[in-house]
Structure formats: structure tokens, C-alpha cells
Amino acid sequence: MNILYVTPNAPWPPHTGSAQRSALLFNALQEFGSIQLVCLQSEASLGSENIAVLRSRYGLSAIAGRSGLVAYPPWSQIARLHYPTAARAANFLDASRSRFKPDRLLIQALDIENIIDKASLIVGRYTTSLACLDLFNRGIPVLLDVDDLDSAALRSEAESISLSSFRRWNARRHLKNVKMLEADIIGQADAVWVVNPEDRIQPGLSHARVLPNIPFLPPNGHFNSLPLNVDNEIVGCVASFGHSPNVEAVNWFLHNVWPQVYQQRPKSEFRIFGSQLPDNLANQWAEVPGVTPIGFIEHVEDAYAQMTLSICPVQRGAGTNIKVLESAMHNRLCILTKSAARGLEAESSVKNSLIVANSSTHMIEIINHYLENPELNRSATSIFSAAVANHYSKSRFTETVQRTINELFNNNPTRA
Predict the structure, then answer these.
(1) 279-286 and 244-256 are packed helices; what angle lies between their axes, rounded to 10 degrees?
(2) What value does the mean pLDDT take over residues 325-340?
């Protein structure tokens, strides 16, 4: 079987949750045949060394970023005068009406018409990826990995009290248009995966199969069991800071939670790990007493080894937060906001092991409570890690992918 695999997040390097899911899905799809990988991002964003790895290990056939509205008239003429103004105006006035339209310049740049001739199955991450390449209704079965619903992300933004009233109003404008278009796009897929069971209440997703996010395995195929370090009072956060909700989350935590924790426990420390942390933001956060921004760290287990507790303070988003599961697999209890727990409560054993803060005050109390009680931390961590390991495993992920594809072709044997 020849599989055309389209993703806006390259499976290498696996430094973000979205890239890790791309890699996990790639590995599962390899069981069915050869893969032609198409990445919808600029080569410059990855670098020549990573591009070489993608070509040699992942079958990269083509790579290019989406053109954007400013590549087309009338915005292209305005962009010649001042590109930033044209881009902002185009996105504001369009309000996502063109989000799911074919990007003819991108299709031509990727030479999609030539690539698709060799495909017997199309697998795409996100509705916009397949829609912008006009890959539906080609006589080839399409398997869509929804992951984060565009409408869910916009709805979360529209309801977020941490954003300005203008941002919320603008999100509602985009949401109105996306809701009208999204269900139709999803309905054109032959099979669909979602990460959050609750997403199946959305139009067009009632028959979707749940393919949950799972912790990303290191190259050796297993996690090293980290002993829990309860001798320090280090609280840690691991995130990719190229994703704006993660920046907003840390800002919220530093403003509403950490000062009170540090005041009550002056020996405590908050360490911030993750890729794409800009220097100006790291310097700003370093000014907060008790805070140490570290940024990118090559081996994520080295980050978890330093902490006794981890946090995931996100205030908005869609899908599920893979870093919560990653924390469990590295034997660290993760303190969550309600938003961070989204999609992780479908399995009762996992739900019962989550430590969810209902407010900033509640999060302060929880963090202090577990820092003050090392043995309680140890016990809660053990329960949390075991629940996640049992439910979010590589074998279950792979089995779901295989079952979905087998059913897709068994129901349509002429496509096999």
C-alpha cells in the first residue's frame, strides 16, 4: 500500500507534542506499506539537517508552507507596499471564510497532482491540511486525524477570560464561519480519528474513532523509570513556547499562583523547560523571584529528573495535553487546570488519578500540600503514573490505527 501522509507538523525533530503525534502516527502507518510524507511548513523552519533526516528516514516527498491570503489578489498587490499590514487586514476581514479553500499555489509548489497518482490511501492531520490541498473526492480513501478541532480551539479562545475582549470578539467571528464549513469538510473523509472522546458530539464526528494522544517514546523504545525526588521543592513546567496558549499559561501561573507559593515556601523554585523560548520572555520571567527559565533541553527526562512536581496551567485550547501524560510516564505528579484536564477524564482510572485545580487559589493550596507532604506526593504519583501507563500505551495506539485501516478497506474491498 502506498500512503500519502500530509501533516503541518513534521515528525522530526519530535520536540513538540504535535510533532510527536505526527511521528507516532507515521510509525503506526509504516505497518501498512510505504509512505510519501508531505509537510506543510517552510524548509527554513526545520533547517537542512532536519530536512535530510526527514528525507532519509520518513520518506519526505515535498515540503512547503501555506501561501496565505496575501499570496492572492487583491492582497498580493497591497502586500508589495507593506506586507504586515496586508496580512493583518486580510486575516481580519476574511475571518476564516477561506480557511478550508484549496491553496492553488501550494498545490503547485508541492506537485501534489503527481504525488497523488501513486497513493492508495490518504492520511491527513487536521481538516485544513487536506482541504487546502483539495485531497477529498479523488477516488482514494481519506483518513482524517482531527486532533485539535479548529472550532474547539476558537471556542476556547472566545471563552477565555485571560484574553482581551477584542481577541474574544474576533474569535467568535472566526468561529461562526468555521462552524459552517468544518462539518462539511469532515463529512468528506472516509474515516476520522479524534483525540478527545467529547469531540464526538460535534457535527460529523459521531462515528469517529478515538485515537488518544500518548506519551512519546524515546529512540530506545521505553521510558527509564525516574525515581521521585522528594528532597527538593522544585516545581517544573515543560512546554513548547511557539504555541501561544503555553506562553499565556505560564504568564497566568506566574501572576496568579507562583508568588503566593514562593512566599509561603521560600525554598521552592519554579523551573521552565521547553523549545522556542525567546530570550526576551525568558529574561522577563527570570525577574520573578524563585523562577528559573531554562528553555530547550535535549533529553526531556533530564527536565523531569530535576522536579518533584510538574504543572500544566493551560487556560484554553483543544484536543488533549500530551505533556500531562508525559509527566506521568516520567513518574511525576502533574497539577492541572480544568482546561488541561480536557479529554483525559474519559477513562475512570485516569480521571480518578488527576489532580485538578478549580482556581488559582486552589492550585496554590494543592502545590503547597504536595510539597509539604512528600509521602503523599509519592503515593499520588504512583497511582497517576500507573493509570496513564495502562490506558495510554503505544500498543493501544497502534492497534487503533490498524483496526481503522483494516475496517476502511474491508468495507470497501475494491480500494485495497
Answers:
(1) 10
(2) 90
In this prediction, residue 413 carries a pLDDT of: 45
Could you tell me the CA-to-CA distances from 129 to 18, 102, 175, 241, 358 in Å, in that order?
14, 10, 18, 22, 35
Strand, helix or coil for residue 39: strand
Residue 183 to residue 348: CA distance in whole angstroms: 30
Query: Of 268, 331, 324, 274, nearest to 305 (Cα)?
Result: 331
Share of the chain above pLDDT 90, in %: 66
pLDDT of residue 416: 40
Residues 238-247: tens digit of each pLDDT: 998 988 889 9
350-374 in b/e form (b: 16+ CB < 10 A) is beebbbbbeebeebbebbbebbeee
In a 3-state reduction of DSSP, which class is residue 38? strand
- CA–CA separation, 159 vs 168, rounded Å? 7
Calculate mean pLDDT across residues 268-286: 94
- The CA distance from 45 to 42, in Å, is 5
What number of other Cβ atoms are within 10 A of residue 194's Cβ?
26
Q: Which helix (H) or strand (E) holds 159?
A: helix 150-159
Amino acid at 37: L
Q: What is the mean pLDDT of residues 15-34?
A: 89
Residue 401 dihedral angles phi and psi, to the nearest 5°: -60, -45
End-to-end CA distance of the chain: 8
Closest CA to 154 of 317, 14, 3: 317
Cβ atoms < 10 Å from Cβ of 118: 12
CA distances from 274 to 44, 155, 226, 363 (A): 20, 26, 19, 22
* Count of Cβ atoms closer than 10 Å to residue 249 Cβ: 26
Phi, psi of 203, deg, nearest 5: -55, 130
CB 204 within 8 A of CB 127: no
Q: What 3-state class would DSSP assign to 220?
A: coil
User: What phi, psi does 348 have (nearest 5°)?
Assistant: -60, -40
Instruction: Output the pTM of the full model.
Output: 0.81
Question: Quick one: which of 331, 325, 329, 334 has its CA closest to 366?
Answer: 334
Q: Which amino acid is it at 282?
A: A
Residue with cell 469531540: 199
Element (H, E) at 62: strand 60-63
The C-alpha cell at 348 is 475512570
pLDDT above 70: percentage of residues in the chain: 95
